Amino acid sequence: MSNRPIYLDCHATTPMDERVLEAMLPYFTEHFGNPSSMSHVYGWEAEAALKQARQKLADAIGATPEEIIFTSGATEANNLALKGVAEAYFSQGRHIITVETEHKAILDPCRYLQTLGFEVTFLSVQPDGLIDLAQLEQAIRPDTILVSVMAANNEIGVLQSLGEIGAICRQQQVLFHTDAAQGIGKILLDVEEMKIDLMSLTAHKIYGPKGIGALYMRRRNPRVRVAPQIQGGGQERGIRSGTLPIPQIVGFAKAVELALEELKSESQRLLQLRDYLWHALCKLENIHLNGHPTQRLPGNLNISVEGVDGSALLLGLQSTAAVSSGSACSSGNVAPSHVLLALGQSEMLAYASVRFGIGRFNSTAEIEQVAQHTISAIESLRQSQAAVSKSANLKVR
Ligand SMILES: *Cc1c(COP(=O)(O)O)cnc(C)c1O
Q1: Which of 24, 92, 242, 389 has the greatest number of beta carbons closer than 10 A?
Q2: Are residue 45 and residue 119 in the same domain, yes or no?
């Protein structure tokens, strides 16, 4: 374990906190019941744990327990929100608004809805990654049924202005959904204050288990309806059938509780580590910070390194740090990140990007080590690059 690279990919997933594991364990073995079993104590125990977890999650976002629908994660919650609202409201309109920099779990369902006859506006973003609120307002039409804008971007960490977006949507009487997979437990989210109508959550980005998440659905002013996308035993009031995974749900609630307890101090600590890393790296020339400099997740640093290929840099860092580059590998093809391209970046710079995701278990010493190694990796790549172009020039002559 000790000679594995330092984990700095916390936007992809996080290790589970031991305290979360401890909370979950009894629900795998002793208290294994199905909360739908109402005739015996095994079911009652599971039901009690479920009720408590649901209450904790509701409290964490300013909601009521009935407004929490458990899902397998944020991907499923996003699908339920988008397809569910589209199916429930299509007689009122078939226009949806989202943003170019959203996660694939928003973009792909939106593209699917387009094939069914829905019209989708993909808002562009400003060079800092934020949407233009005036542009959003102009995009809303009488047939718009839903606006979906993410809370925090998974690549560049940029935090959209949820409160202002919520106010616009409420005023225009359009439902507002936010994918808060990267937001929950890292920034304060209040569905009342921010006028959020639907919100997707997940546990595994905040030291909880994988395979569990939730969709928050507003019950009053307005009461949101969604068409179920998974049918069966009628769990979650028929909105999402399937036996509820109590261990995961207990772990999810514990993870959120811990993250909120430690939010203030942890944000400050992560911010210090992130700024240390940035200040160390930007001493080199031609390094660009991607995304808004301050309106971003404290643990996120996304940079483009001019003249250096991102995958070469990743390779150079491989034994030191587990990070990810701004190019996603899908079906064998490496393509530059759609998020960085949406910021107006050239393909060249998008390919030259690296994302550091600093988290709960990273120490100052680790970040110092990563800073040092990254600097020397960039320097040596630039030197060999310079040597290559020099010899190429000689040959041309
Ligand atoms: C991780 C992530 C998702 C997907 O969440 P899962 O729980 O893994 O399905 C969706 N949106 C964003 C912004 C994410 O970061």
Answers
A1: 24
A2: yes
Number of the ligand 1 atom closest to the C-alpha atom of 213: 7
Q: How many Å lie between the centroid of ligand 1 and the Cα of residue 202?
A: 7
* Residue 24 backbone dihedrals phi, psi, to 5 degrees: -80, -35
In a domain, 388, yes or no: no
pLDDT (tens digit per residue) in 181-237:
999 999 999 999 999 999 999 999 999 999 999 999 999 999 999 999 999 999 999
Residue with tokens 């562009």: 124
Residues whose CB is less than 8 angstroms from the CB of residue 389 and which lie 6 or more positions away in sequence, other chains included: none
Considering the domain architecture, whether residues 33 and 91 belong to the same structural domain is answered as yes
Ligand 1: lining residues by beta carbon, under 6 Å: 73-75, 103, 105, 150, 154, 179, 181-182, 202, 205, 213
Within a domain: residue 100? yes
SS (H, E, C) 361-384: CCCHHHHHHHHHHHHHHHHHHHHH
- Atom index in ligand 1 nearest the CA of residue 152 equals 13
